[in-house]
Amino acid sequence: MSSPEGPPNLGLLDQYSQGFMVSQVLFAASELGVFDVLAEAPGPLGSDAVAARLGTSARGTEMLLDVCVSLKLLQTEVRGGKALYDNTELSSDYLVRSRPRSQHNMLLYLARTTYLCWAHLAQAVREGKNQYLKAFGVPSDQLFTAIYRSEGERLLFMRALQDVWSVQGSSVLSAFDLSPFPLICDLGGCSGALAKECVALYPGCRVTVFDIPPVVQTAKRHFLSPEEGRVGFQEGDFFEDPLPEADLYILARVLHDWTDEKCSQLLARIHQACKPGGGALVIESLLDADGRGPLTTQLYSLNMLVQTEGRERTPAQYRALLAAAGFADAQCRRTPGATYGAILARK
Ligand SMILES: C[S@@+](CC[C@H](N)C(=O)[O-])C[C@H]1O[C@@H](n2cnc3c(N)ncnc32)[C@H](O)[C@@H]1O
């Protein structure tokens, strides 16, 4: 049926159906090291020179570079009839792996793990559960056993997760003044990336990163640096073991992994460990009140379907979970232009 404004917009359907090709161009160019080679070169390079440095085919490389130009991931100029390629500001800041705000590891994780789970989205919707069995032949009754199914996969996951905090960590931690909380525990704090941002921002605070033993051991082996004396690690299971003493408990991208029942269980344990006047800070990508936006958070929520037991939630849903655990006075702040927001509640 055509509408009074004219025929339905087939272009929009094309754009959606080709979306995966655009992702793959970004993933392949990152994985091959296109942006790194161009960053290291003394000036713009022709596609043959890029291919020679990467050890890739001349044919494939030229096609890939030209699509990257259309996607504004590369820029090009013609000298002596020959196209020369260079990074744009976007790729230079976020795609060159040596840059401090690089998202390279997250792109690798999306390409090698998330993308393969999304290939089974329809099945995830049918079953209402994650797709590690279909994608990797791994049972997922123990969620983090499936997520960390090999040492290499755990390291890639930890590296990937820290990329976002190099860009958004300081703004999300500034949403509330955390200086009244000198002793902080980052539950499920992974590599310690957010903890490091926290001690840099609040000179008076110390942070204990609490995570399961293999993650803490990998963090100590691969992520710890000597100047981070105010960040410590403690091994444990936050559903079972005593929680470290703290004035504030941070839960960043933790509740979205779990069902409401498991979130309630965890929040009740935190409330029990928390001193009166202490707090819980939930950091998550927040859905709009009606759950129908922002699109990025809706897509993250579907990602929770294909990769976890949880979902993204609205501020009201987090407030209800916090209130049921005994936390009062929950305030929500979204950080402008950022994917993540913060909810602070008090005991
Ligand atoms: C999605 S990641 C978020 C990591 C980090 N907070 C961030 O925002 O980058 C969830 C974290 O919870 C940890 N975790 C999962 N189950 C846990 C448990 N039972 N006890 C302690 N940590 C756990 C995982 O190892 C992982 O580091």
Provide an overview of this structure.
The chain has 16 helices and nine strands. The chain is an alpha/beta fold and about 350 residues long. The protein has a seven-stranded mixed β-sheet with strand order 5-4-3-6-7-9-8, sandwiched between helices. Strands 1-2 form a two-stranded antiparallel sheet. The chain binds S-adenosylmethionine. The site of S-adenosylmethionine (SAM) has 16 residues, from loops.
How would you characterize the largest beta sheet? 7 strands, mixed
The SSE order reads HHHHHEEHHHHHHEHEHEEHEHHEE
How much of the sequence lies in strands comes to: 5-15%
- Name of the CATH class of the largest domain: Alpha Beta
The total of beta strands comes to 9
Counting H and I runs of at least 4 residues, what is the number of helices?
A: 16
Look up the CATH topology of the largest domain.
Answer: Rossmann fold
Bound molecules: S-adenosylmethionine
**How many domains, as an integer?**
2
Spatial sequence of strands, sheet with the most strands: 5-4-3-6-7-9-8
At the fourth level of CATH, the homologous superfamily of the largest domain is Vaccinia Virus protein VP39
CATH architecture of the largest domain: 3-Layer(aba) Sandwich
Q: Which structural category fits the helices and strands?
A: alpha/beta
